[in-house]
Predict the structure.
Amino acid sequence: MDGAATTMIPPNDVAGAAARHGFGALCDVRREVTATAAVITGGVTAVVCALLMWLLSLIPGSTDVFSWVHSLAYPIHFVLLMGFIWGAVYAIRGLTVGSRATYLFEGGLVARRRSGPLVVAWGDLAAVKAVYKRKQGDEGNVAGYKVEGRDGTTIPVPLLLAGGRDVFIDRIIAEARSHGRPVS
């Protein structure tokens, strides 16, 4: 289990959505990166890269522009600049997207998003589709799955392998197949 579902109580909005749909007991939880972790990771990365760029800019100050020091400093500055940009974007994404989690109940899935809970009951499941790391075609390594409801609700679930299996995804696929829904 990803989260300690046996001892964990889901948030009120998730529990309410599950109760309204009669989903039964909580079986498992799949957590993505929390907003706090994204902001801290991105912020620390951006600050460290900015400080290192500043420190590096102090070193070649007295040397000739065409010296080996400058030749070495420019590529390092570029890498640090990319790290700074990545950190800033990661932190901003954490703030805008927020914390995400998908709760697996006996009767369906409830995904917690900033906009509110997304719900797909097993009986209302339309399909489970693989998401590939490559953007073209149905080839390459599977990065996760999209659970699609008949009403158009789509819940992306990232793949997290442990011992070559993902029990969370296996349960979703088993429910889809038991209801005669396509899994691709």
About this structure: Residues 12-32+100-178 form a domain with the PH-domain like fold (CATH 2.30.29). The chain has two domains: 12-32+100-178, 36-97. DSSP finds four helices and seven strands in the chain.
